[in-house]
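@channel anyone free to eyeball this complex?
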Amino acid sequence: MFRLLAGILILYGSIGFSFKLCQEMRNRIRHIEQMKEIFRLFQSEISYSRAALPETCFSVSKRVAEPYKTAMEAIYEETMKKSGAQFPAIWKEKMELCLKEMPIQKREQDIFIEFGNQLGFMDWKMQNAMLEKNREQLDELYIQLKNAMANKEKVITSMGVLGGLMLVIILV
Amino acid sequence: MGQETSILQLFPDTYRALFKEVIKHAEQINEIRMRAEKPIIVVRKGQEFFLTKSGAFTREIDVAEKMGQRALETILNHICNYSIYAYEDEIKQGFLTVEGGHRIGVAGQAVMRTEKEIKNMKYIRFLNIRISHQIIGAADLILPYLYEKGKLCNVLLISMPGVGKTTLLRDMVRQISDGNRYGKGMTVGVVDERSEIAGCFQGIAQNDLGIRTDVLDACPKALGMMMLLRSMSPNVIAVDEIGGKQDEEMIRQLTRCGVYVIATIHGSGMEDLENNAIGKELIKEEIFDRYIVLEKEKNGNIKRTIYNKELFKCFVC
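replying in thread with the prediction:
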């Protein structure tokens, strides 16, 4: 009876672990989608209202989900303090804090944080082109992950089940 | 916000130490001129000083700190909130107004759209920060002469640049708008083509222009006067540095509509005005009831002479 129970628990644990891995992958894709959306919102704010970046952060904060909402508000508040801190440094600090616990990888994190160093264009079209480039990079990553996800999910789930069964045979 | 804070905010943290002495004497500072690879020049009480590396004032050019090209770019970027594109229109016209009403003049290489129209400016290597100083009470002495039998007069201020006609106009607007011992408060419309009178930043006047004042910022004068007349029904319209034929025609129209006009014009005195095509017409038609001539005396004091519409001197101080 105890052996059966232990076997079920091991199997449950390994399948659960595989689901967790799949969930993390889905979350990573979801965050990339959100980052793309943030860049898109920045582009529309800049092209339609020519808003400056702190104000853009404030209006974007109203249209994005957590944790980006809080980060955008924090950037706006920090820049409005006019303490002398430079916008790229503020963006980096707040975004690193925001993305610290996120299920994302260095590649997308770098694209997002690097945005703070791509400012200062005289022309709004140039500034938007830079945002567009970042969005395209994220888009490329998004498509890659999305295409790979279906197969990876199957492999991870199967591995979870098989690995669990193997552990049951070995241990129980 | 204090003068010191508003000046300090213009600089990113890495350059604040360099301007610490400037901040301490904020009330006396007229201009901060920065040119790429050239010494920083600060005009304090009308006198030029250089800044040393530690931020102290000096007259010795050998110890003067030079402004690097990269530093200049960083300061401009900081002033523009790292969003230079958002200030494209202002940069095109050569200046931008910041919080506190200070004006940042910019110069570099103009990118032309057509022969007569600037598209943008690149390689901005010259910055001139003109510190805004509102002098509350600047119009106190002349105020009694702005009214006749309880009614406001149409007033034209005449002076050379840098003598203080905008400062005087600003205080006149404030006192007319708020009301004073000679007249009730009136609705004043200000057409501020170069953002010098109100010093608007994001639409908010940084200088006190009174509680009944509406400001049309960055709008050509003649067009602005017409717009204010139609939209805000002002009792008084104030405008700085009239000069074109259109301005003259619009002023004529305003006075016909019963709107009082307070304007300024470049000139050294009444003689100069009489030789000016616009001035001659305005005098002849007796559009203005008062002419106030401002002159800088050798000792630096400002002499104000007030003439009535018949060009008789009524007051000198």
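from a first look: The CA atoms of residues 37 and 68 of chain B lie 5 Å apart.
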